[in-house]
Specification:
Blueprint: H1 2-20, H2 23-29, H3 58-63, H4 65-101, H5 110-121, E1 126-128, H6 129-136, H7 142-148, E2 156-158, H8 164-173
Antiparallel strand pairs: 1-2
Length: 174
C-alpha cells in the first residue's frame, strides 16, 4: 500500500511539475517567463540562468492555484459571452439570408418581428410592412405606395380592420 501511495504521489508530482513548467501560467500571473535557452558548450557546471525567470515551481503552482482558477473562470465567462454574441449574430445572419431567399425582401427588424408575434399570440392578424407590400400591392405601385407611406418600411400592418381596437389595447397593455 505504501508503494502504491508513493507511486500515486510521484505521478501527481510529475503532473504538477508539467503544469508548473507551462510558460502560459507565468504569463497569466504576470510573472517573468523562461528565457529561450541558447545552446552552449557544457562544462558540467550548473545552468547560470536565474531561477526567478524560469517556470513556476510546484509549490508556487499550489500557491497561485486560486488565482489561476479565478483567471480561468474569467476566461471561460468571457469566451461564453463571446460565443453567445457570435451565435446571436449568426442567428441574425441566418434570419436575413432566409428573408432574402424568401422573395428577396429585407427581413423585418427585431421590434417588428416581436410586435407581429405578440399580436399573433392575441389572435390579431398582422404582417411586417415589407411583407404586406410584397403580398398586397402591385409591384408597379411599390414606389408610389412607399413614397406615400414610408412607415411601411419598418412598420406593422394589421390585416383585419375589425381588430384595430383590440390591437391598440393589447399593445397599450404590453
Amino acid at each position: 500500500a505504501a508503494t502504491a501511495a508513493d507511486r500515486t504521489h510521484q505521478a501527481e508530482r510529475r503532473l504538477a511539475e508539467a503544469l508548473a513548467a507551462e510558460d502560459r501560467l507565468a504569463e497569466l500571473l504576470g510573472l517573468p517567463t523562461a528565457r529561450a535557452a541558447v545552446p552552449a558548450q557544457r562544462d558540467g557546471a550548473e545552468d547560470p540562468r536565474d531561477d526567478s525567470e524560469g517556470p513556476l515551481a510546484v509549490d508556487e503552482l499550489d500557491r497561485y492555484a486560486d488565482e489561476l482558477k479565478s483567471l480561468l473562470d474569467d476566461a471561460v465567462s468571457a469566451a461564453e459571452r463571446s460565443l453567445f454574441e457570435l451565435r446571436t449574430a449568426a442567428a441574425d445572419d441566418t434570419r436575413i439570408l432566409a428573408a432574402l431567399g424568401d422573395g428577396g425582401l429585407l427581413p423585418p427588424g427585431p421590434d417588428v418581428l416581436a410586435t407581429v408575434e405578440f399580436l399573433g399570440e392575441h389572435g390579431i392578424p398582422a404582417l411586417p410592412g415589407w411583407r404586406y407590400l410584397a403580398q398586397s400591392v402591385d409591384p408597379a405601385d411599390h414606389a408610389r405606395v412607399l413614397a406615400s407611406r414610408p412607415e411601411l418600411v419598418d412598420g406593422v400592418i394589421i390585416t383585419d380592420p375589425d381588430t384595430h381596437a383590440r390591437a391598440r389595447e393589447a399593445l397599450g397593455d404590453a
